[in-house]
Design brief:
alpha+beta; single chain; DUF1249
């Protein structure tokens, strides 16, 4: 008997989402309630900036990355993530539409890359700078 293709997949996105949630919360254990840019700092490293794009009762969306004012692509890496607070998951959202056959592989690669970057931030002890929590960055529209 042939099994549906969905059950034959070996790699799942769910463990990546769980790991990304754990790493995100280690870096940002107390998520700011207000909107705006926030600086996460680590000794001897470039700051990481986070911006809450939206917040609903069970989810929130965030923009994460380093800011390089002198470069053409000023915000890099440029991750938009959705945090599922009740399920304790973090998903990197694709920046563009992909053909249906490519979506899963793209999401796997994108969420693996997010996990590696969050792990880098965790290993280098990035933390929210409570003294200067907000960062003076350009408007979101001006970053793209």
């Amino acid at each position: 008997m042939l099994r549906p293709q969905i059950f034959q997949r070996k790699e799942s996105l769910l463990p990546l989402y769980e790991q990304n949630y754990m790493l995100f919360r280690l870096i940002l254990p107390n998520m700011p309630n207000e909107k705006g840019w926030f600086a996460l700092e680590a000794q001897g490293r470039l700051p990481v900036y986070v911006h809450r794009l939206s917040a609903q009762p069970y989810t929130s969306e965030w923009l994460l990355g380093h800011f390089f004012p002198q470069r053409q692509r000023r915000f890099s890496p440029d991750y938009t993530i959705r945090v599922y607070h009740d399920a304790r998951l973090v998903e990197a959202l694709p920046p563009m539409q992909k053909p249906v056959g490519e979506v899963r592989a793209y999401k796997l690669a994108l969420n693996r890359a997010l996990g590696e970057w969050l792990d880098y931030c965790h290993r280098h002890r990035y933390r929210l700078n409570a003294a200067a929590a907000t960062a003076d960055l350009p408007l979101l529209e001006d970053l793209k």
